[in-house]
Amino acid sequence: MGNPFDYAPDRPEHIDAILNGLDRYNPETTAVFQEYVVQQCDQKFYDCYANLALLKLYQFNPHLTKDETITNILVKALTVFPSPDFALCLHLLPPHILTPASASSALPAAGDAPLSEAVQKLNVLNNLLAQANYAAFWSTLDSDDLYADLIADVAGFEELIRIRVALTISQAVREIERSVLESWLGMQGEAFNKFVNEVCGWATDGTVVKVPLNKENEAKGTVVRENVKIEQFSRVIRRAYEQPA
Amino acid sequence: MSAFQNGAAPPRAIDNDSDVEEEALAADYREQVQYEGMEETSMTMAQQTDDIQSRLAAAAQPLDFSAPLEVKFASYDNYCSLFHFILNSDGPVDLEPPSYYWAWDVIDEFIYQFNSFCSYRNRAARQGTNSEEIQILREAPNTWGCYSVLNVLYSLIQRSQITEQLAAMKRNEEPMAVAGDYGSKPIYRMLGYFSIIGLLRVHCLLGDFSLALKTLDDIELNKKAMFARVMAAHFTTYYYVGFSYMMMRRYADAIRMFSHILIYVSRTKNFQKNAQYDSITKKNDQMYALIAICVAFLPTRLDDTIHTALREKYGDQLLKLQRGGPESLPIFEELFRASCPKFISPTPPDFDNPELNVDPLEHHLAIFMDEVKTNMWSPTVKSYLRLYTTMDLKKLAGFLEVEPEKLRNWLLVNKQRSRQIRWTDNGLLDGEVVGSGDLDYAMQGDLIHISEAKVGRKLVDWYLRNLARTY
């Protein structure tokens, strides 16, 4: 987990070169970045720093904006919750994007009303995930066909989310009731067993699912002791030489 | 004897944190303040004799806030021609910067005018009342355009080879060896250097917080950095770095940045010239407000000086923030509004649809407030958990008058948010995940196991302080 924010293990060299040079501002590179987003969606990897560079190009050149790419980037950012990536993407979108539809639908000329609707819908999902309200997340996702359209391009979206949910659970839970976990993971029956046993490696025991102990969920008390370094005393020691009494 | 004490500066320990260094820096600063008077007089003489010198000086002069539109346009043209002269003359121009802080003032003023022009344009389009002005603005979409501003900053950075120079300095090599024809001249080196800090600021104003931090990769944030020689630069750098960290939810790092600079200011304020001090007082208060926000997100033990000042300035608000819940929301909003940078939108506004030109501040605030709402129950949850070592989830939900399911969510959220990425080494975006809460817990079915990290008494700081007082 100790990787810098701008690091992505799967980033190809040509993308890296653009990101580190002035070409990241060149409108002609939007095509390259867009292609890269498609790759991320298809091949289940993720590069937030590159996606932010694309959103910045859109920010500077609104006429180049492709709504579909924006929503795909946001959907990808959902799959890495609870990191701040989704919010960081939102910050680069046009300021009116989050104003409620009632205000913008009154404007016939507002060409990007569908985009702002989609972004607001995704923001709802993001907030549910951030608030760890996983059960509501799954039911909201099923509640509207628009969501199905939005996530269609991102391969394995539900699987990626489930893995993240499982990760956050493993940090805080040692044992959990099956029914609760089912609602959090949005799956039941055989699929549930398979995911919990094989992907997570957790044990099901009747109505209880046991999560193996790890560093985060043992909750061990510790005593932090002061770490004293000799450097802290350098001034005192030097004083003793400078001003002999 | 006095020569021994004052003439040769004692060798400084290579240590970021020692008091010695801060004092040396403070002394250095005091010297500069005394020099300033002299430099100003020599500058006025130069102005009379040398046209270019007066243009250089004019570029650093603040523009009146209420200046009419034509003046803002003219000022843009002036900057363009000045930077064009500096960057695109036949070879490096042979100029001495009027003062050691001139380069900072120019970049600072350049960005300030860009910033206020964008805000002004956006407001004009939103209000849509002054059709004459709107017409002028509509016809000049490229004046103070973000591409040209970024172009200036990046060109100054490239011309001066400042990144190469800084990289060489990091390797303990002679920067002049890689500086090239341009970068070896102080005027280019300083403009290039402060352009990096200018970029940090512009990216932050545009809402690109990760790129803002990435920009500083080559600059080492310590007291020996070049920006530390110019108080305003020092101050600005830490404000924007801290703010960017806060927006990336790295509160521990944000607090570290704000504390560093606030302590520095409180130590040096006694010998700062009044005018200069006034201008930073406002930013100073803003940073205290930001610290209050960060501490609410991530309870942290602050430096005593900061803590006292924070309680003086924002005592009531801090209490409410720390208590959390819906009552804290307006306070978060109020403090954020008062202390965030003046965000801008990089493109010309949509003059035909005034309603679409939402103030960028509202946009960033809305995103920020979502995060606040996500977190607002954490203080409540923690205050209860602190009282027990084991607790039944349903019983606690009863105390809190919420559904057990809701409480489970809160517990998960708080657990996630107490894990913070914290800087240890290398670039500012680097860091390691640290569980920063003093409170830890895990759920076993409906049973919550709670443990607390106890901090042993910290005596060294107290001991040293008293020792320093006595001797």
UniProtKB/TrEMBL annotation, chain A:
One of its GO terms (cellular component) is eukaryotic 48S preinitiation complex. InterPro entries: ARM-type_fold, CSN8_PSD8_EIF3K, eIF3k, PCI_dom, Transl_init_fac_sub12_N_euk, WH-like_DNA-bd_sf, WH_DNA-bd_sf. It holds the Pfam family CSN8_PSD8_EIF3K. PROSITE patterns: PCI. Belongs to the eIF-3 subunit K family. Component of the eukaryotic translation initiation factor 3 (eIF-3) complex. This is Eukaryotic translation initiation factor 3 subunit K.
UniProtKB/TrEMBL annotation, chain B:
One of its GO terms (molecular function) is translation initiation factor activity. One of its GO terms (cellular component) is eukaryotic translation initiation factor 3 complex. This is Eukaryotic translation initiation factor 3 subunit L. One of its GO terms (biological process) is formation of cytoplasmic translation initiation complex. Belongs to the eIF-3 subunit L family. Component of the eukaryotic translation initiation factor 3 (eIF-3) complex, which is involved in protein synthesis of a specialized repertoire of mRNAs and, together with other initiation factors, stimulates binding of mRNA and methionyl-tRNAi to the 40S ribosome. The eIF-3 complex specifically targets and initiates translation of a subset of mRNAs involved in cell proliferation. InterPro entries: eIF3l, PCI_dom. The chain crosses the membrane at residues 191-213, 225-248. Component of the eukaryotic translation initiation factor 3 (eIF-3) complex. The keyword Acetylation does not apply. HAMAP family: eIF3l. It is found in: Cytoplasm. Residues 253-447 form the PCI domain. Pfam families: Paf67. Coiled coil: none annotated. Keywords: Cytoplasm, Initiation factor, Membrane, Protein biosynthesis, Transmembrane, Transmembrane helix. The lineage of its organism: Eukaryota, Fungi, Dikarya, Ascomycota, Pezizomycotina. It comes from the Eukaryota.
